[in-house]
């Protein structure tokens, strides 16, 4: 049962960061806007109050001569410099006393101030005045401010988000490295993770993981050790059994039937001995025993010697053998012969009659060598391929040939590749199966 | 012929007694000892022509014994070991062992190695090996690499010729598959497959099947022998 994962941590962090920065910036801009709007309103009120004072002053000054025309003239003069003001003077009864030039169009935004003023015409009476301030410019200013702030908020949020996204990605990068390192851990090479460049938060996880790996490695080692010990302990009893049976067979007076039986037992003992020897060989390889390399001028000639050895077998199977390519380098020749012999034996076993088995030796660009053995036979199913080099693994029980082959041949090929610091490969497609090994150029370390 | 004396130092008593029995049957005089310290004393005190030495012994281990022995003696030593790693072999050979055999081994193999070592340590003036080997009506001309039986030429491949030479040189002796693989093809590892068996079968069809007198015999579980047997 697989639960849905929580989605990408990086993506979620980035989204939240974007949203938060947008909300935060919008709030700041709103406060700035409100504060500014309040201040503008305050200034408008102040301006109206100031104008009221000035008008009161004009009205009281002109009170003395009771001249309507002069009053009108004075007010007109005043309003020349104050285009954004509109004044309506009327008596209590509603009769219009003065109105400055009526605006052609009604301003979209206004602020009105009503006040009473001493009538310059009749000193005992008062006039009611309505002073209207045109606030269109201020409104436009506020609108522009609002737009600017909005743009700033969105833009700022965008910049912060992108920055945040990059930062989150950068911070999560060690995590990707960690995943990659973990992926590279192989069953036979349980190296602990290197956590020194990982953030502190991941350290406990890495420590736990490494402790787990160590326990696994110990268990693996124990198992390997057990295999080797079992094989080792079997050596002496097998030697005793083999020697005693051989001695019995050598006695000429032994019954033919008994001799037959002893011979058959001896054959089985040889098989057991071969398995034990192979298991010991594999455990030595696993414990880091490395190849004793010496310079070889022609790998093809090594292949020819192996081909010679298999000549009769190939002939009986009606299979031809071809060797193509050549390479030079440092190899452990006895080991290589053994690997190649196992590969050829395998290829012969599964090749169609009348087909050709090919040994292809390629010199790689990095100086290494690739040795491939190809045969035409039935295709090996893809699911079996990765386990082909495992011990005692037989893909198809019907093709096991258990009488000739105990299932360690390819495991030994893999061990020999490892002892040379190399690797193995296998492909099977359209009846063409290619199995082989890649041996890197000898390094200084070895 | 002078009798050869062999000392077997092997802590596994059963194996030691079988080795003694087998070697005695081959005409050697054999002493066995199961302990390293005692083994060293015996090897130092008495004159042995060869030592068969187990690698792991109680008291003192094989390599230690070898080092002590080499202070004053150069008796040939064949080491038996359950360890197969290349490093071990090298260490042992540097430590003074003359040859190696890894357990489990075949007795015929042990015999062949012992004979080889004794031949090496006692270089006898052998008559120059004849350039023509023969058994009954089979003849091998080593110079012209020509094989004939009953006067008719046998058509052998190069490796088949080498194989027949080996069998003929050691006629009457059972030669194991491992030895054949090693000496004819230089394949010094146990193969799981039956290359030698197939090669022998093909050789047999050429040099034995057409004739009434059979010479190439299979000794089940042990190997092959070239000899005349009376029906």
Summarize it:
The complex is a heterodimer of chains A (446) and B (231). Chain A has helices at 9-62, 68-80, 136-183, 203-250, 256-286, 299-316, 333-350, 409-419, and strands at 85-90, 96-99, 110-118, 126-134, 294-296, 320-324, 329-331, 356-363, 369-376, 423-429, 432-439.
How would you describe this protein?
The complex is a heterodimer of chains A (446) and B (231). Chain A is an alpha+beta fold. Chain A has three domains: 9-159, no CATH class; 200-286, Helix Hairpins, CATH 1.10.287; 294-439, Histidine kinase-like ATPase, C-terminal domain (Heat Shock Protein 90). Chain A is 54% helix and 16% strand. Chain A is built from eight helices and eleven strands. Chain A has helices spanning 9-62, 68-80, 136-183, 203-250, 256-286, 299-316, 333-350, 409-419, and strands at residues 85-90, 96-99, 110-118, 126-134, 294-296, 320-324, 329-331, 356-363, 369-376, 423-429, 432-439. In chain A, the strands form three sheets. In chain A, strands 6-8-9-11-10 form a five-stranded mixed β-sheet, covered by helices on one side. Chain A has a four-stranded antiparallel β-sheet with strand order 2-1-4-3, with helices on one face. The longest helix of chain A has 54 residues, at 9-62. The mean pLDDT of chain A is 84. By secondary structure, chain B is of the alpha/beta class. Chain B has a five-stranded parallel β-sheet with strand order 2-1-3-4-5, with helices on both faces. A four-stranded antiparallel β-sheet of chain B has the order 6-7-8-9, with helices on one face. In chain B, a hairpin with a 2-residue loop joins β6 (132-135) and β7 (138-141). In chain B, α2 (36-45) packs parallel to α3 (62-70) and α6 packs across α7. The mean pLDDT of chain B is 84. Classes of the chains: A alpha+beta (446), B alpha/beta (231). Chains A and B meet through α4, α5, α6 and α7 of A and α1, α5 and α8 of B.
């Amino acid at each position: 049962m697989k639960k849905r994962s929580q989605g990408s941590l990086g993506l979620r962090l980035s989204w939240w960061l974007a949203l938060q920065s947008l909300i935060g910036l919008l709030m700041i801009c709103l406060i700035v806007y409100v504060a500014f709007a309040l201040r503008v309103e305050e200034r408008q009120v102040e301006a109206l109050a100031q104008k009221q004072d000035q008008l009161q002053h004009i009205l009281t000054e002109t009170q003395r001569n009771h001249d309507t025309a002069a009053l009108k003239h004075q007010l007109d003069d005043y309003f020349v410099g104050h285009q954004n003001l509109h004044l309506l003077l009327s008596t209590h009864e509603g009769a219009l006393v003065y109105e400055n030039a009526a605006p052609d169009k009604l301003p979209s935004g206004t602020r009105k101030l009503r006040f009473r003023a001493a009538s310059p015409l009749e000193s005992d009476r008062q006039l009611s005045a309505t002073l209207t301030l045109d606030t269109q410019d201020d409104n436009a200013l506020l609108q522009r401010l609002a737009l600017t702030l909005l743009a700033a908020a969105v833009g700022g949020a965008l910049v912060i988000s992108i920055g945040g996204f990059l930062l989150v990605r950068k911070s999560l990068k060690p995590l990707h490295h960690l995943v990659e390192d973990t992926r590279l851990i192989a069953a036979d090479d349980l190296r602990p993770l290197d956590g020194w460049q990982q953030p502190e938060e991941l350290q406990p996880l890495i420590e736990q993981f490494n402790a787990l790996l160590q326990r696994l490695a110990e268990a693996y080692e124990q198992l390997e050790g057990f295999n080797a010990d079992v094989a080792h302990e079997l050596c002496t009893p097998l030697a005793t059994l083999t020697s005693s049976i051989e001695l019995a067979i050598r006695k000429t007076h032994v019954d033919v039937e008994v001799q037959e039986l002893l011979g058959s037992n001896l054959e089985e003992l040889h098989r057991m001995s071969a398995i034990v020897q192979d298991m010991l060989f594999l455990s030595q390889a696993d414990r880091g025993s490395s190849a004793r390399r010496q310079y070889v001028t022609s790998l093809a000639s090594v292949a020819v010697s192996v081909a010679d050895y298999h000549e009769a077998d190939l002939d009986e199977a009606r299979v031809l053998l071809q060797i193509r390519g050549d390479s030079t380098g440092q190899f452990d020749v006895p080991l290589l012969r053994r690997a190649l012999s196992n590969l050829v034996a395998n290829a012969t076993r599964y090749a169609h009659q009348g087909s050709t088995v090919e040994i292809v030796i390629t010199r790689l660009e990095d100086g290494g060598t690739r040795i491939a053995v190809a045969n035409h036979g039935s295709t090996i199913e893809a699911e079996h391929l990765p386990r082909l080099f495992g011990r005692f693994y037989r893909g198809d029980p019907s093709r096991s040939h258990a009488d000739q082959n105990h299932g360690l041949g390819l495991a030994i090929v893999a061990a020999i590749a490892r002892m040379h610091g190399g690797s193995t490969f296998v492909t099977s497609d359209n009846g063409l199966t290619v199995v082989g090994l890649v041996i890197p150029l000898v390094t200084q370390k070895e | 012929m002078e009798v050869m004396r062999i000392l077997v130092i092997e802590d596994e008593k059963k194996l030691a007694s079988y080795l003694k029995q087998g070697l005695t049957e081959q005409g050697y005089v054999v002493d066995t000892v199961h302990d390293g310290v005692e083994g060293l004393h015996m090897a130092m005190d008495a004159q042995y022509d060869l030592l068969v030495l187990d690698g792991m012994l109680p008291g003192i281990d094989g390599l230690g014994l070898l080092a002590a022995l080499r202070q004053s003696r150069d008796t040939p030593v064949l080491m038996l070991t359950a360890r197969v790693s290349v490093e071990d072999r090298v260490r042992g050979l540097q430590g003074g062992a003359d040859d190696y055999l890894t357990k489990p081994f075949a007795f015929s193999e042990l015999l062949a190695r012992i004979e080889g070592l004794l031949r090496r340590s006692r270089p006898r003036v052998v008559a120059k090996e004849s350039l023509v080997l023969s058994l009954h009506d089979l003849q091998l001309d080593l110079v012209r690499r020509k094989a004939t039986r009953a006067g008719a030429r046998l058509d052998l491949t190069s490796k088949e010729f080498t194989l027949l030479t080996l069998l003929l040189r050691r006629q009457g002796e059972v030669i194991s598959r491992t030895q054949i693989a090693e000496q004819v093809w230089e394949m010094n590892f146990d193969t799981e497959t039956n290359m030698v068996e197939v090669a022998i079968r093909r050789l047999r069809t050429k040099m034995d099947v057409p004739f009434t007198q059979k010479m190439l015999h299979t000794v089940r579980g042990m190997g092959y022998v070239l000899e005349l047997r009376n029906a």
